[in-house]
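Troubleshooting: if your tokenizer reports a length mismatch, compare your output against this known-good record of 103 residues.
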Amino acid sequence: MRYEPTVQPDGSVEAPNGAVFRRTERKLKRRECDDLIRDGVPIMTDVYPAGLVWSDGADAQERWVEISPTLVNRRLPSVHEGWVAHIWENENGDPVVHFDGWH
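Known-good structure output:
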């Protein structure tokens, strides 16, 4: 399922089920993303002009196939297109993988 989540005034994000997720400082590497998404963790992608999009299930896995070749550890001026991944968590510690992209 793809869904446009609600962004709260404090920058947190409300998921389709009403849970509120907040950004952590933890960046992810490709292998960690592989493991989390394979285990069914939803993802959020944020890139202009599409904006913030929540994906889960098969949609998340399909989107990850598109993103994974261009995942980097940090935004680099020499890289013209890419994604950086962070973990966001709700109050119960449930994760969502957030991809911040540019092109």
